[in-house]
Design a protein that fits this description.
The structure holds 3 protein chains of 3 kinds. Chain A is mainly α. Chain A has 16 helices and 5 strands. In chain A, strand 2 and strand 3 form a beta hairpin. The longest helix of chain A is centred in the C-terminal third of the chain and has 38 residues. Chain B has 15 helices and no strands. The longest helix of chain B is centred in the middle third of the chain and has 39 residues. The radius of gyration of chain B is 25 Å and the shape is globular. Chain C folds into 2 domains: about 325 residues, Dipeptide-binding Protein, Domain 1 (Dipeptide-binding Protein, domain 1), CATH 3.90.76.10; about 200 residues, Dipeptide-binding Protein, domain 3 (Roll), CATH 3.10.105. Helix content of chain C is about 30%, strand content about 20%. Chain C contains 22 helices and 24 strands. In chain C, the strands form 7 sheets. In chain C, strands 1, 16, 17, 18, 21 and 22 form a 6-stranded mixed beta sheet that branches. A 5-stranded antiparallel beta sheet of chain C has the order 2-7-8-10-9, with helices on one face. In chain C, helix 18 links the parallel strand 19 and strand 20. Chain C is globular. The N and C termini of chain C lie far apart (about 75 Å). The chains are: A mainly alpha, B mainly alpha, C alpha+beta. Chains in contact: A-B, A-C, B-C. Chains B and C meet through helix 2, helix 3, helix 7 and helix 14 of B and helix 7, strand 15, helix 12 and helix 19 of C.
């Protein structure tokens, strides 16, 4: 082994079969599982995703399943899509108060309710649920038996907002960074690997996107659309925030393509695509993973910043960020609006970063050698 | 290298034209004009006659289609005139920028320097101590800071340092008695005002930068040449600093290049909280008021900086890593 | 049983400045009512100038229609009656004396906690005690006091003609010079400090005002009738570069204005309307500063000369600008030339030595500064009334008061949209809304429910006016889905969300959309919405509402049209007797209520915090400053 120091990669490359390499990802997963913290973080994100998906089953004011006038309905589906509510409830003038109306209008009816009777979109009034008092509002809304995490200014339950807001928290990160990572890595890799006019051209694209202010884009979009949701905003964030990733990928590729293992792979007849996205990329992941993992978490904070500035999604929009910015306005007497969503954001940021760290080490070709 | 530079500069000019053209089109396509906003703030007992509106629109160049107006703007820029602000009493845009630049720079340059100065040692330390309890604790604390939005932290700082302890001024950039102070006194006064905004501006970046450095370092320290160095008996400190850190320069230089335009863009929310007369607020308000010339002037400035940052990074690649060449 | 009906694109636009002050708080001279007749000749404005705007010569007063003013002797033959020339502070003092002494002493009042809305008693006690004026001899006034005020935005222009922001009007309220003003009941008067006599012709078409001879600008030059005429002609000038947005309307309802000598100024009205006096209010500029320079630089903003006077304006008011740090503060100082003339004191000495106006955009920051005593007064947002200003830390140095303001908030229905053209639909919306939740939870009991366009306390509110609407879902349950667009103030979004919840209950789906201010303005002006949340402050005269409800008017965002209402507005303008006018506007009020082009939600009150050293604050339906004497009555108490 009298190769110069910088050729370690060549050995790494020769370890991996040049054909299809399903073993690589299996191996990475095996290595990832060994990292306890990373696994805990992954479980946390999985649990969060589950909470997000099942939000209406956990907190809500509509039965998950009920029998009414001899038929079975799923009123909680309303939380997923307003059109999924059966017109019969509008016809019978339920007015969103299922607990009292089900009994009153059909004594034979039964219902399975969510775990907690609270709503992210409105204040619970007195006796909507037998024996449950009205939600307090403002500074009286501190955590209590009925509102575990307190209520906000308007008297909306914080726990309900956080559970339903988990949908936003989970989706915004993945959507925006999914878009950003795909575009960024692809363009960065192409520019760095091929160089010359491809680099010149793609670098200009990067620069143009970098310089168009995303606030202007968001405002233009909000003006165009009549109903803005978080996915729209996140698509914009994704479409504008890939430039950093692209630059970092490009820089790594410019460095790595000169390495011997690339030449070796080329000599062995690997296609440019395979070289780029299996051999080089694996070695270039370290600087790229950091902005991606931070970006996923950042999306939550960007969402909160946008609602703070007043350009968020259409309200009522239960999200952690909205809660935080409301908490800021009442910082001296409504600490629960900062503490709980703040903790949730912190845990999410931490989890994503731990996963990122784990992923980096699990996919590092050099560490594989250590394992042997 | 010289020919490379010349080529890059030529291309940069074309890129700039493209960017400004795009942005101009975008902002003109947004609903509302400077005149709309002037109407809005007027007393409800007043209304502008159609003639007056037409006159305002002509004065602002809104009677021309946007591409035509863009070329008028560009022609003026070429001779060094950035135009005037429609909503700020027709003050020249260049004057507005010059007025705000020092305050912005003071905040962002200090904070950027601080962030790098603190996070490089933290990152190196975290590499050396990887996965120890101390390292995990420090990283977790940094993540915690990262997840705390600056607008929340700012208020807690104000409550602590101004209300409770009365150590630092609450807002603004200078005291009432500023004019009567000695030059040293003036500097101290401004510095005291700057402490809280700078702290808020900096703490969030620490987690990101130090994590970035650690991630890159970890990649490098596993390379064979580090092992070789270690086998040769080089001390761990020297390995980290001399051998490993130098090899993480490429991503670091990229990051530095990316943060250059941020020097002038300021921070909207923090500037508002601390009433700091920076550029972020100006930009944000200009967009809200559809003050086209100000938006364009600032976009141009940011773009120049961004392009300069990229160019600088590209040149530095070749300096810090001889394997990178430009032909 | 109705099926679930769907509206296509409706949008409720949430009007805007809502909580930050619906109407820009103007100084009295700019708040003239507007007759909204077609503007005067605008021949210049229609010319397209290919070579750019500056190529056009500047002709002062080119929009004034030709008129041949008679010689002064001719005017003497007219039959005259006197207009009110009063010392507004003395007038207010007389009113307060009539109302009797306050129930509590200042010390007792300052020890009270203002627990409004739980009870109004303490609020009224505080206001009664602290609104007492300084005695005529100025005893108890600390003439060395520096008053530190708060504003939320930067000073845009120091030239009152170009005033556009609240802060601009704050400056002109302290430093500006205007011949006429109005008191807190919106009655016009000429200020004794400025005017010797005010005569009005019997036919209400000519007015003659004689100025005092001891008035000087801050550079020492005397203030004369020629300055008034010059400013009139300046306002009435059409030039492509000169934009005077706020003052033109109203002023163009005058036929002519002429200064016969240094002190005598005569105004001719086009029509003898009830609103005519309001047309004579404009801020006066020094002729000797601008006469020549405006020809060279018609924009009045760009030349070296104009920029110099922008930084150091020559003013005629009680205070003058002494320093200005952009985005931080500006400072005005008591002007000796105002109250001293030829070594004699000729006017009341202004109470403050200096007024420092601090610009702090972030209100949380401003409240912290207030508590520490760094600023001495600020307008509070309703959300801060209970939460941040109720503790010992606030009361250590400050107190706070609430006063009713004639500012109403509503949702505008676009009556040209297919969904709201039928007034039954609009009534259904009115019945569907949950007023109790709005008033008690969102507004925290701080406001009264809306009962139509005029405030119940106003003179034009009909004696048997409408009662507040009670929510009635059964009556409302007729209609269905529309989209709500909103500007994003905190309360704005909260109210919109409540609409959504209220209508959700009867199967109407509302989508709340936060909209940037400029977008919302654009859409309302173009009527591209179905419904819109907004608020209006009050003008000095109810006639200003023609801009809002008159067919085809600019501020009639909802395109409401009712010929009867238009006719009544015309009648109200021509009627000079206030009682008869009250009946006419009462009829308008009832017609509007009947038609429900708006759903009136609530009347907003004014909330202010003041340092305990301050005294003499009185409120008009437009807040504590925007009337005569207003700011001039405030003083710092001597220890």
């Amino acid at each position: 082994m009298d190769l110069p120091p910088s050729t370690t990669g060549a050995m790494a490359a020769s370890d991996v079969p040049l054909g299809a390499s399903p073993g690589f990802w299996r191996e990475a997963w095996r290595r990832f599982r060994r990292r306890k913290l990373a696994m805990a973080a992954l479980l946390f994100v999985a649990a969060l995703t589950l909470v997000a998906i099942c939000a209406p089953l956990i907190v809500g004011t509509r039965p998950i399943v009920c029998q009414y006038k001899g038929r079975i309905y799923f009123p909680a589906a309303w939380y997923y899509n307003r059109d999924w509510e059966n017109p019969i409830f509008a016809k019978d003038r339920f007015r969103g108060r299922f607990a009292e109306n089900l009994q009153a209008k059909d004594p034979q009816s039964w219902a399975i309710w969510p775990l907690i009777y609270q709503d992210p979109y409105r204040r619970i009034r007195e006796n909507e649920w037998p024996g449950q008092p009205a939600n307090p509002s403002g500074a009286e809304g501190r955590p209590s038996r009925y509102n575990w995490l307190g209520t906000n200014q308007q008297g909306f339950d914080v726990l309900a907002s956080m559970v339903h807001g988990a949908q936003t928290a989970v989706s915004v990160g993945f959507v925006s960074m999914g878009i950003a990572a795909t575009i960024g890595i692809t363009l960065g890799a192409l520019a760095g690997y091929y160089g010359r006019w491809i680099d010149v051209l793609l670098s200009r694209v990067i620069e143009v996107v970098m310089c168009v202010p995303s606030l202007v884009l968001i405002l233009a979009l909000v003006a165009l659309l009549d109903r803005v949701n978080n996915l729209h905003l996140m698509a914009i964030v994704g479409l504008t925030h890939w430039t950093g990733i692209a630059r970092l990928t490009r820089a790594e590729f410019m460095k790595l393509k000169q390495m011997e293992f690339v030449a070796a792979a080329r000599a062995l007849g690997a296609s440019p695509g395979r070289i780029m996205f299996t051999h080089v990329l694996r070695n270039a992941l370290a600087p790229v993973l950091v902005p991606i993992t931070f970006g996923i978490a950042d999306a939550i904070l960007i969402e909160s910043g946008l609602s703070y500035l007043g350009f968020g999604a259409s309200p009522p929009n239960p999200s952690w960020g909205t809660l935080l910015s409301a908490g800021r306005r009442n910082i001296e007497d409504m600490w629960w609006l900062i503490l709980f969503p703040g903790t949730a954001i912190f845990l999410t940021v931490l989890a994503y970063n731990l996963i990122g760290e784990g992923l980096q080490e699990a996919t590092d070709p050099r560490l594989r050698q250590d394992a042997h | 290298m010289t020919s490379y530079l010349i080529r890059r500069l030529g291309i940069a000019v074309i890129t700039l034209v493209l960017i400004t053209f795009l942005v101009y089109g975008l902002i003109r396509a947004m609903p509302g004009t400077p005149a709309t906003n002037q109407l809005a703030v007027m007393d409800p007992s007043k209304q502008l006659s159609p003639e007056a509106i037409a006159r305002i629109n002509r004065l602002y160049g809104l009677d021309k289609p946007w591409y035509a107006a863009y070329f008028v703007w560009m022609k003026n820029v070429v001779v060094g005139d950035l135009g005037v602000s429609f909503t700020r009493n027709m003050r020249p845009v260049a004057e507005l920028i010059v007025e705000r630049a020092p305050a912005t720079l003071m905040l962002s340059a200090t904070s950027l320097a601080l962030a790098y100065l603190l996070s490089i040692p933290i990152g190196l330390w975290a590499t050396a101590q990887a996965n120890t309890v101390a390292e995990r604790t420090v990283s977790t604390v940094l993540y915690m800071l990262y997840s705390l939005p600056a607008f929340v932290a700012a208020l807690y700082l104000q409550l602590l340092l101004y209300v409770k302890l009365d150590w630092l001024p609450l807002y603004g950039m200078q005291s009432d008695a500023y004019e009567s102070l000695s030059p040293v006194g003036k500097a101290v006064d401004v510095l005291r005002h700057a402490v809280m905004p700078i702290a808020c501006f900096t703490y969030g970046n620490l987690a990101y930068y130090s994590r970035f450095i650690r991630a890159n370092m970890q990649e490098v320290v596993r390379q064979d040449y580090i092992r070789t160095a270690r086998a040769k008996g080089v001390g761990p400190r020297a390995i980290l600093w001399k051998h490993a850190f130098r090899n993480t320069m490429i991503p670091l230089v990229t990051l530095l290049g990316l943060s250059l335009p941020g020097l002038f863009s300021g921070a909207v929310i923090l500037e508002q909280i601390f009433q700091w007369p920076g550029m972020g607020r100006l930009y944000f308000e200009a967009i809200g008021q559809r003050d086209y010339n100000v938006i364009m002037g600032l976009t141009l400035m940011f773009s120049v900086l961004a392009l300069a940052g990229q160019l600088l990074a590209d040149i530095l690649y070749a300096v810090v890593d001889p394997r990178v060449t430009y032909g | 049983m109705q099926a679930r009906q769907r509206f296509g694109w409706c949008s409720v636009v949430w009007a805007a400045s809502v909580l930050g002050g619906v109407t820009a708080g103007c100084s009295s001279q700019d708040r003239s009512p507007d007759a909204a007749a077609p503007p005067g000749s605008t021949q210049q404005a229609d010319q397209k100038s290919a070579a750019g705007p500056s190529s056009q010569p500047f002709v002062l007063g080119n929009a004034v229609e030709p008129f041949d003013p008679p010689p002064l002797e001719e005017l003497d033959k007219l039959q005259w009656e006197d207009g009110p020339v009063v010392d507004s502070l003395e007038q207010l003092r007389a009113e307060k004396a009539e109302a009797g002494p306050p129930p509590t002493s200042v010390e007792e009042a300052l020890a009270l906690r203002n627990d409004f809305p739980k009870s109004r008693e303490n609020n009224d006690k505080i206001l009664a005690a602290l609104s007492q004026l300084a005695p005529p001899d100025g005893a108890g006034v600390d003439y060395e006091h520096t008053f530190v005020r708060h504003v939320a935005g930067d000073l845009n222009s120091t030239n009152p003609l170009f005033g556009s922001s609240v802060t601009d009007y704050e400056l002109s309220g302290m430093a500006g010079f205007s011949v006429l003003a109005f008191n807190r009941r919106f009655e016009y008067f000429a200020d004794k400090d400025i005017v010797v006599s005010w005569q009005r012709s019997k036919d209400n078409l000519v007015e003659r005002i004689v100025l005092r001879d001891d008035l000087t600008w801050s550079d020492g030059t005397p203030i004369t009738a020629h300055d008034v005429e010059f400013t009139y002609r300046l306002i009435m000038t059409d030039h492509p570069e000169l934009v005077i947005p706020a003052v033109r309307q109203g002023t163009d309802q005058l036929r002519y204005v002429k200064a016969y000598d240094d002190r005598t100024i005569v105004y001719w009205h086009k029509e003898p309307f009830a609103t005519r006096t309001g047309n004579m209010l404009w801020p006066v500029l020094p002729k000797h500063i601008y006469e020549k320079s405006v020809v060279e630089d018609p924009s009045m903003k760009r030349s070296e000369h104009h920029r110099k006077y922008e930084e150091q304006p020559v003013v005629g008011g009680p205070y003058e600008l002494v320093s200005r740090v952009r985005n931080q503060e500006f400072v005005v100082r008591r002007r000796e030339g105002w109250y001293m003339h030829g070594g004699q004191q000729v006017r009341r000495k202004p109470y403050f030595k200096e007024v420092r106006v601090k610009i702090i955009e972030d209100l949380n920051t401003a409240i912290l500064a207030l508590k520490a005593g760094d600023i001495q007064s600020m307008e509070l947002r309703p959300e801060h009334w209970e939460s941040l200003t109720a503790g010992d830390d606030f009361y250590a140095q400050n107190t706070k008061v609430m006063a009713p303001e004639w500012t109403e908030f509503h949702v505008v229905w676009n009556v040209k949209s297919p969904y709201f053209s039928d007034k039954r639909v609009r009534w259904a919306m009115t019945y569907a809304f949950d007023y109790e939740e709005l008033l008690n939870t969102i507004c925290r009991g701080l406001y009264e429910q809306g009962r139509g366009t005029f405030n119940p306390a106003a003179w034009m509110f009909p004696p048997d006016g409408p009662q507040p609407v009670k929510r009635d879902l059964d009556r409302a349950e007729d209609l269905l889905e529309f989209q709500l667009m909103t500007y994003t103030t905190e309360t704005g979004v909260q109210v919109a969300t409540l609409w959504k919840e209220s209508l959700d209950q009867i199967g109407v789906t509302v989508n709340v959309k936060p909209t940037e201010f400029a977008v919302m303005q654009d859409k309302t002006l173009k009527h591209e919405f179905d419904a819109c949340f907004a608020g209006w402050g009050t003008g000095a005269d109810p006639d200003m509402q023609e801009n809002i409800f008159g067919a085809g008017k600019q501020r009639n965002y909802g395109q409401y049209a009712n010929p009867e209402v238009d006719k009544l507005f015309e009648q109200g303008r021509r009627e000079l007797d206030r009682d008869k006018r009250a009946t006419i506007y009462g009829q308008i009020h009832m017609l509007l209520w009947e038609d429900q082009p708006y759903t009136w939600l609530f009347y907003r009150n004014a909330f202010f915090a003041f340092n305990k050293k301050l005294r003499g604050y009185n409120f008009s339906p437009r807040g504590p400053y925007d009337f005569g004497p207003g700011f001039a009555a405030l003083y710092g108490a001597a220890e």
